[in-house]
Amino acid sequence: MRRIALILIISLSALATCAPRIAWYSPAAYATAVDLKVETRALALKAAEPYAGHAAAVDALLLKLEKAFEYARGIPDNQLAARQWEIIRAPQGELAGGFFRQWKEQGALDPAFVAEKARQIDLAFDQIIGLEGSKDRRTREE
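Structure (tokenized):
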């Protein structure tokens, strides 16, 4: 019986160390994700207009996305959120970074394409917001 209990304890300990760890809730990370979702959508919906009139706003937004990525990457046990930010901001990707690069290269984008990409980008932000909102809100001392 003791042997079975010992094996069970060792097995559970091994499983616990294999489980992915996730960072604690950060009000700043949550607020940043919500703010950037709204700001990104508002700017993306202007992509049917000439890029030149929005270049400075795009550059400023891309910098904010980069900051959000770096913030997430710097939090211990936050690899999942950092990866999500990396995907959203990737200039060669299919979300915000790639969308804004495409707008810059083409000058203006088709309104139907803009609407669909804005929807896809919103869904990606919803993933980050959902992850941030589901993190443990207890203090680390509890």
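The mean pLDDT is 88. The two ends are 34 Å apart (CA to CA).
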